[in-house]
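fyi for ur records
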Amino acid sequence: MNKNWKYGAVVIGVSAGGLNAVSFILKKLPVDYKFPIIIIQHRNTEQRDLLEVILQEKSKMKLKQADEKEKIKGGIVYIAPPDYHLLIENDHTFSLSSDVRVKFSRPSIDVLFESASYVYKEKLVGIILTGANSDGSDGTIRISKNGGVTVAQNPDEAEFPFMPQAAISTGYVKHVFSLAEIQKYLLKINQE
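which gave:
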């Protein structure tokens, strides 16, 4: 992470309806995007690589499943492996955990958001998209309290509005954006 950059990483939490939302956001991001984008997508444990294959077809950025102890680099979209919590360590590497489910989910958005907020602090952007549970709302609070920027998809356009609405209801979401506005925002911060 370049210390002169305003931001250091983008974390995205998404559940039901997420494939279309994430595909839309990623499709215009350039291959040389400065920041890592780290995604928690709730998914079936049998679909080991299907999400990555589909999203790579729609993204110019390199996309891969996050690996244990892997150094986090800009310009890569990392996806949490199914059935593992994904955490970020102080040395900017990933850690995988098979600890108990959080809000019925593993990987958990809250687990990623909270660990990322302690590492990146005010240089973190956390985004909550479509989904049918409240995973991510606690992590949104933590990102905000640690100085990061929090964004939620407008529930009116979300395929499943419950998850972004739960985050908004915490009172800690700074921006409520449409998918098109989220995409523009991510392009804008890449220029800062």
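The mean pLDDT is 91. thats all i got for now
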